[in-house]
Amino acid sequence: MDRLRAFEVFATVVARGGFAKAADALNTSPANVTRYVNELETYLGSRLLNRTSRRLSLTEAGEALYERAQTILEEVAEAEALASATTLKPRGRLRVNAPLSFGIRHLAPLWPRFMAQYPDVLLDIALTDRVVDMVEEGFDLGIRISRGGSPTYAARKLATSRNVLCAAPDYLARQGVPRTPDCLANHVRVAYSYTGVPEDWVLLDPEGKPVTVRVPIRLVTNNGDTARAAALAGQGIIWQPTFLIGDDLRAGRLVPVLPDHRIPDIDILAVYPSRRHVSAKVRALIDFLADAFHGTPAWECRA
């Protein structure tokens, strides 16, 4: 049994949530996927997955192995990349998917530098806030804004962005400054639809305990810049990342609301379909972006 391949198959089954989906991602048959998982369970002497006709779940042994398998696969990918870096030159079309607002504000200024550094790479950039299936739609690399990592793809963290509850000064002058979370019930918010537009907001109090508040919705949008524009025009309170509103906070166009209550940070990730056999052009872009966002991100810098 190829144990490394078995680890990869097992990790893909868990990430994709099923044997058939894992087979599609690995370009093999469901029978092969089942064989690898069965052989791995036999080799380890432990059941890793509970299987029913409707759902798949990890056993305790499976949870422990999944965490370790991800680390092993990442280490192997890094080693392979280092081994091939001296012999492979980045070249060819490189299809990149990124969120609209982040792509315009923080990625667009970087592309000319990358193009100058890698003249044999043809960049193909697609901006959308919709989460795409990278394999199905043929993307080599994607930029994701995520709070929980990437359960489906390999990922490398590039930066962190704070989430801030804020509003325009004139809105707060008209409606009053909320002093406690309960006060938000008397305000309106501009909601971002890709978060699912939940009825409630969950904030963390100064001790880190969750506080649930319900804020009436004034506007729903699937684009952060639209939410920002509405907030700047005094139409409600928004919850947006500092990579989008950092300049507004520094300039005082937007001011924090309930600054002693926190919203969990989000990560900026470079994601790619597989940890193994990462191409030179993808590896070059990941390293380039990691270097570009190294240290304190520009959106967190103080005036």
UniProtKB/TrEMBL annotation:
Example of a GO biological process term: DNA-templated transcription
Keywords: DNA-binding, Transcription, Transcription regulation
Gene3D superfamilies referenced in this protein's UniProt entry, alphabetically: 3.40.190.290, Winged helix-like DNA-binding domain superfamily/Winged helix DNA-binding domain (1.10.10.10)
Residue intervals of the HTH lysR-type domain: 1-59
A Pfam match: LysR_substrate
Signal peptide start and end residues: none
PROSITE patterns on file: HTH_LYSR
InterPro entries per the UniProt record, alphabetical: LysR-type_TF_proteobact-type, LysR_HTH_N, LysR_subst-bd, WH-like_DNA-bd_sf, WH_DNA-bd_sf
GO molecular function, one term: DNA-binding transcription factor activity
Domain of life of the source: Bacteria
PANTHER family listed in its UniProt record: HTH-TYPE TRANSCRIPTIONAL ACTIVATOR TTDR-RELATED (PTHR30537:SF5), HTH-TYPE TRANSCRIPTIONAL REGULATOR (PTHR30537)
Family: Belongs to the LysR transcriptional regulatory family.
Record-given protein name: LysR family transcriptional regulator
Organism: Nitrospirillum viridazoti CBAmc
